[in-house]
Amino acid sequence: MSKINKVVLAYSGGLDTSAIIPWLKENYDCEVIAFVADVGQGEAELEGIEAKAIASGASACYIEDLKEEMVADYIYPTLTTGALYEGKYLLGTSMARPIIAKAQAELALKLGADALCHGCTGKGNDQVRFEGAFAAIAPNLKVIAPWREWNLRSREALLDYLAERQIPCTASLEKIYSRDANAWHISTEGGVLENTWNQPNELCWVWTTDPEQAPDQSELVTLGVENGRVISVDGVAMSPYQVLKTLNDKGAKHGVGRIDIVENRLVGMKSRGCYETPGGTIIMEALRAVEQLVLDKESFMFREELGLKASHLVYDGRWFTPLCQSILAAADSLAQGVTGDVVLKLYKGQVTAVQKRSTNSLYSEEFATFGEDEVYDHSHAEGFIRLYSLASRIRALNEKNK
Amino acid sequence: MSKINKVVLAYSGGLDTSAIIPWLKENYDCEVIAFVADVGQGEAELEGIEAKAIASGASACYIEDLKEEMVADYIYPTLTTGALYEGKYLLGTSMARPIIAKAQAELALKLGADALCHGCTGKGNDQVRFEGAFAAIAPNLKVIAPWREWNLRSREALLDYLAERQIPCTASLEKIYSRDANAWHISTEGGVLENTWNQPNELCWVWTTDPEQAPDQSELVTLGVENGRVISVDGVAMSPYQVLKTLNDKGAKHGVGRIDIVENRLVGMKSRGCYETPGGTIIMEALRAVEQLVLDKESFMFREELGLKASHLVYDGRWFTPLCQSILAAADSLAQGVTGDVVLKLYKGQVTAVQKRSTNSLYSEEFATFGEDEVYDHSHAEGFIRLYSLASRIRALNEKNK
Amino acid sequence: MSKINKVVLAYSGGLDTSAIIPWLKENYDCEVIAFVADVGQGEAELEGIEAKAIASGASACYIEDLKEEMVADYIYPTLTTGALYEGKYLLGTSMARPIIAKAQAELALKLGADALCHGCTGKGNDQVRFEGAFAAIAPNLKVIAPWREWNLRSREALLDYLAERQIPCTASLEKIYSRDANAWHISTEGGVLENTWNQPNELCWVWTTDPEQAPDQSELVTLGVENGRVISVDGVAMSPYQVLKTLNDKGAKHGVGRIDIVENRLVGMKSRGCYETPGGTIIMEALRAVEQLVLDKESFMFREELGLKASHLVYDGRWFTPLCQSILAAADSLAQGVTGDVVLKLYKGQVTAVQKRSTNSLYSEEFATFGEDEVYDHSHAEGFIRLYSLASRIRALNEKNK
Amino acid sequence: MSKINKVVLAYSGGLDTSAIIPWLKENYDCEVIAFVADVGQGEAELEGIEAKAIASGASACYIEDLKEEMVADYIYPTLTTGALYEGKYLLGTSMARPIIAKAQAELALKLGADALCHGCTGKGNDQVRFEGAFAAIAPNLKVIAPWREWNLRSREALLDYLAERQIPCTASLEKIYSRDANAWHISTEGGVLENTWNQPNELCWVWTTDPEQAPDQSELVTLGVENGRVISVDGVAMSPYQVLKTLNDKGAKHGVGRIDIVENRLVGMKSRGCYETPGGTIIMEALRAVEQLVLDKESFMFREELGLKASHLVYDGRWFTPLCQSILAAADSLAQGVTGDVVLKLYKGQVTAVQKRSTNSLYSEEFATFGEDEVYDHSHAEGFIRLYSLASRIRALNEKNK
Question: Would the pTM of this model clear 0.80, i.e. be above it?
């Protein structure tokens, strides 16, 4: 293997990636560039992050604001498929990984780096998502995954490692839960959740009000939808990220968007997580409500199939593959015309579409009324049923004639 | 067409089928046998129904209790597929039709009748479900669908028709909502719901408490699951129908199981309905929770595909077809081992699995702990990822080398 | 129903549509416009057709050359999905119907006609395909299907009907086989084929040499493929229709492209047909051969799923639906990059790809060779397998520990 | 890792596994048991194999005849799904691996061995298939894959290795093609095939006559099929393996069953192979022909989906998984009733079903004849089409009214 001179690291400012910087320099004798993607993880996470990276030994720190692009080009395409991993999970972490990895790999190519590095553990999905994107975008670059290489096995070991090198770090020794946040969601794993027979406690939830503590008064919100995307909230036009942010606030207040699941990781084991996706849950409900009006029976079914497939592709880090692009093309085609308005009620953990309309609606009182003579004739039903069940009748007659 | 001598009618005791009895006798000059299936529509519906049928002119009335069979042999097989029509609807009416039609057709064959009759309208799904079952079970029998034949077009016309014949009927002139109930659910259509921009009002809901009026105190219930079926509630073993009845009460109290959707009918138009499935919603959540522990990634995905297919087959009245039987066989195979316990929280319209365990769980703290050395080695991940993304890497290298 | 003034008829010049012209005029008291689509059915079919239409009573006859458009915009999009109806049928009749019906409906709208008419029988698929297109393109126009209305039940009756009206007709009384031809294929039904236990005889085949009589010498042909379309034959660039015509000649000579199947019609019954698709069979083999080089495992599988779905949609006359467009969008996305050269051997009824290459090939001797160190490491396989079979191992350990 | 005392090796008698025996003993200091599965690879392969194993250092050699079980319990279940990997490959090697690995693992458990060993290379599929089965059946046993461990990199190295130890070996230095054979097929890889632009030469084919050299006279064979399995050849009842053997002879004579494909391996790269499956190709054609008569449209389509899924599961070594069992259960359900007779013509590389019949046929001249009045009414078609295309009509009317 050839010598590595410059590596670009996906840097979060947390304990792990802080330790990775000196570790890379010592073990690979190379320059380390920190790359920070702002995907809406929160201002607290980003504050002073450049200085922190430099203090840890990075030669430079690049921060890129990817929030609008992530919502517009990664989240909405996925939402038009209706993807819910294993029927529940809104794919919050999964959708953020490809955009981060792509920006990181492109920076590395631009800077002439020879390697890419991430701080994902060796038992999780994220390593696959990062490296799947790297393979597609920068196939020549070496990938370094310290958690699969080093002998540091605990927070204590990491803190000691930093202390020995006199690198400042505010991380505490005790950290019960493992978390990941972006504009779309926050996830929580570990601690009490490790036993599936334990209920989540209030420490498992970060963004959202406990439904049992949420306002006793329900709240309505009206969303404008155009071609499968929410474009306005209560009549105010907004960018994709602004819509999400606005709905995160509303949803969180009412305890909307909590799920607690055991899921199959790509790497063959199961894990349990609590996810909070307040705004996303509202958006999903709104899109599905407009689809109810617009999609015919076979299209609706295919959209559900696309969602099932996309849920695995996105979860499995397959974003930058011809298959994923093909599925997104199909979903985008179906989303044309998914346009209308939805009123949703938020109440103690639930979001429910209570009013919906669309100029493309295949449901219409008018048709239902004049339908009898102009569009639909009761007598047509007989012919339909006869042909629809003809194979059954022939089969049954066959049996009787045996 | 040959003369019809005896017809077996799916009789409900309502206005429509009450008028059908004399209409059949007058128009087909035939004997009419009333058939009543007890699928849990409620005691009020069944009280005095035999006398009513005779008073309307039926020569006999057969009542069959199908409740346990319906839950055990129609509902649970469907549930193991996870079928939710268009992502939401728990198929309450759809699952009851095949068992009713089958019992009716078998009675007709036993009695030597020449025809079968139902009171379904010509714009709905139920006519297809009844006649699809008839075609498979009694392909030689003639089917009479009065709503596609007669000129009676309103409740008023039906009431007049009965009054002229001095047939007693307690039905009122005004009936805003159209309903169907069985042990699993009650549906409501019509009235204010005909405009999708209208919210449902409280008349649209029959069984369940309004979530906003439901108890402020949440309630826990523990279900025992064996091979995809709930066999006990809070530690008490129960028959399938008893489980459902018990959970209907609990769910209804907490406002669980309401949905309000616009759906694609099989006959090409859309309709809007409010459905209440309190117990069923709890059972579905419980089965899905145990599956989270037991099914591996690919099995889970296939179960979701089976559910998608089954939802359409059941909705479309395809129960008695080789395809439906094949899909149920696949789902039954996967359901073996879906065994465990689930604790669910009922609260203001929501049901949430908060604790779950299974002796077949693929999740296990123990594995997660000793996993490192015995079952899972961090370093395996690198090999996995390299091969998993090999095609992406080759494709990208190809592009760069062009 | 309102009075019909002008109807546009899909006119073929055959016995049925010749009789339909006077029948329409007599029964609907309307002007009849003949519309002839040239989809490659052959010059003999088109010769003198305008005069024939006028002689039958049409007020005008419009002939439109749709050959290139059909191959480019209907056949190739379908081919990129790989659609083979029930595993065998290359959809020759099915793909021609939407383009004919669309051109016919557009002509009717342009001419201000109030109705559309076709000569399809009431037991076949084509009526559904025509009327499905009409519904999507000219939903307001009335549809007339004489075969479902009139009492003419035999060729003799039709010939008498024309003779009584002194309309010249060259059709003979005896016509054993029913046929349909276009640039892509010719189909044969009826006669000896009506018993599935009969072998087809030589009258069942029209275009192709009997493989047992085909040249003893095999022949090679080289096709250039670009993004899922054949663009050259033996190095000569050609239009889509020219490619097809050239390969029809070559294939027919060698007896390539015969199939004899029993298929499920959309209308619930089965039928048996012999189909000849000489050029099409060669093109399919060529496209599949390039795909073998270019598509990765998951993409290939999805392409097969798309083909399965598309085969039913196209067969069922669903071309002008959002679902079909969505599936074609997905297939088109995958077809980008399906580019390369294929040498095919034609020999006594078979076509076999014997050489293939592509600049986008994921197969490469070079990778296979230097692969060991640069792209693929044998040791990666262990990690891959361990994770790939981890769920199996955990499940089995579970069982043993019970 | 704990000490290994006894290892069971899947032994073929070839160069690789001959070298593995001493290598295991030297490197693991353990007893080596040779296990030979007779899956129809040929008598030449099996002759003297026990003596050879002992001469190489094995302490014992177990030979198990798995031919009938393989055809009955592995091949036919797969065939009922219609599985063809990537549209072409009849899965010959894939179907043999699970039964071999299962018998080997069960022997190891019986003998109290601590490890399992196979001779598969580190770039192929077979290692995954073996180890996938091991994980499911003997999850506690250690797996040794010498090709991923040792430094022997060529035939020369292996021959030297054996010579140094004075172990007799008849293998030659030059071996151009890599082959695998069992009762179902023989595969050939390597040599001239490594460049996809090369045609296969006659050395690439082992069992089958070159179609261009095959008899000029076609031959007919009649197969009896019952519930998806061939039970007789030309009227003679035979066991599953006997049927296969008989048809292998007939097919090989006529050059039937050759394919030459580039396929996606599970491990992310592509490979090219020539496969010969003479009898299997005939059986597949026969089963599909009976299905044409028996399966309705939706069942046929689902059978194709099952085949697509099964092709990947079987290829990928997923036999012993709940998913594979579920899919086989679905296919088995559909295969009930796939019963009838088929006459097939063998001619110069092709097999074609030319006659077929079934008592369960949904095709029937009788229905086609009396069908008009009793089972099918032309006028039913109108109703069918109106409802079938209702959503299209409503959508189009919507557009026009905008």
Answer: yes
